[in-house]
Amino acid sequence: MQDRPTAERHTPVLRDRIVELLAPALHAEGAVFVDGTLGMGGHTEAVLTACPGAIAVGIDRDTEALTLAGERLAPFGDRFVPVHAVYDEIPEALAQRGIAEAQAILFDLGVSSLQLDEAERGFAYRMDAPLDMRMDQTTGLTAADVLNDYGVRELEVILRDFGEERFARKIARALVAERDKEPFANSARLVELLQRVVPAASQRSGGHPAKRTFQALRIEVNAELSVWSDALPAALSLLPVGGRIAVLSYHSLEDRITKRGLAVGATSSAPPDLPVELPEHKPWLKLLTRGAEIADEAERADNPRATSVRLRAAERTRAKPLSKAGHDVRNRYQNAGKPSETTTKMGETR
Ligand SMILES: C[S@@+](CC[C@H](N)C(=O)[O-])C[C@H]1O[C@@H](n2cnc3c(N)ncnc32)[C@H](O)[C@@H]1O
């Protein structure tokens, strides 16, 4: 753990734009802001400062993040409520606290700089550490479990789909051959294998040879895409009319789920042959961003994490669709970003 205060160690991506998008929904006294990915609390701090009547419920699956964000947000007293949960559990987490809706919701997806900075968490390929990569270290499979227990085909699919790794098959085969000699435990041995297996020409043009494999393992270990597919419709169902949601994605599959998820609400559901659009077919979301917004050059130069960000935001424009429609919405998410054969942890259908 480092000694510098949390706030100094971290700059939230697109902070001012997030405040600009969400603050109009948070002016009323007692308005609820849900930060579904609290991290080190940078966005929540900015929102609570800009919206003095609002309270914030900060969700994170990482207990260390909750502790650090709690220190940073202590000056806001009981306007900040920390919750240890996975973000697809937000409706239940709010209900337990007697909250039925949220006027604004933010998701800043992926790992935090805290998680990347701390060698022992195993997220960073530049530091030797146990192959853990769990955002919630209290539960679940580690990256070492995935590497040592998954079949060669499963590994290939994960590397290809979650890491967008061109050499997925070659790497998967090399991983299985290597673990047969001795199971994987630490990242240095994995990095050394990747340096050997990824062709030199690709290493020159495609960045660090371990980058894509580490990303793929992290997404698998934390079931990031399937959880996000469930979390987005659940979050949208919490928005009252006028409520707003903003999502920062860093991976094309994540952003695809976000784009399609918002499009479901922002598009008329009227059958094409119906001459008149009935009220129940009207869109119930208005997109607040044109396509996906990116960070400007200055922010990208200043914060490497901002280079791949895609921001999408929307506002609820009418009351909840019927539950049947809500059900349809969820089904349509389920297929939005899932790779062909596997998205979830070993043991589930692939
Ligand atoms: C990019 S960071 C958020 C940074 C934050 N916006 C800030 O300003 O400090 C993402 C955070 O989301 C958390 N997270 C990722 N997936 C999650 C999930 N499914 N449920 C709950 N928290 C999650 C991670 O543990 C991490 O702390």
Automatic annotation (TrEMBL):
EC number: 2.1.1.199
Subcellular location: Cytoplasm
GO function terms (MF aspect): methyltransferase activity
Region (Disordered) residue spans: 297-350
Main localisation: cytoplasm
SUPFAM superfamilies in UniProt: Putative methyltransferase TM0872, insert domain, S-adenosyl-L-methionine-dependent methyltransferases
Superkingdom assignment: Bacteria
GO BP term, pick one: methylation
Biased composition (Polar residues): 340-350
Keyword terms of this UniProt record: Cytoplasm, Methyltransferase, rRNA processing, S-adenosyl-L-methionine, Transferase
InterPro entries per record: RsmH, SAM-dep_MeTrfase_MraW_recog, SAM-dependent_MTases_sf
Catalytic activity from the UniProt record: cytidine(1402) in 16S rRNA + S-adenosyl-L-methionine = N(4)-methylcytidine(1402) in 16S rRNA + S-adenosyl-L-homocysteine + H(+)
The keyword Cytoplasm is annotated on this UniProt entry: yes
Binding site for S-adenosyl-L-methionine: G41, G42, H43, D60, Y87, D108, Q115
Record family assignment: Belongs to the methyltransferase superfamily. RsmH family.
Function: Specifically methylates the N4 position of cytidine in position 1402 (C1402) of 16S rRNA.
Name the record gives this protein: Ribosomal RNA small subunit methyltransferase H
Provenance organism: Ornithinimicrobium faecis
Gene: rsmH
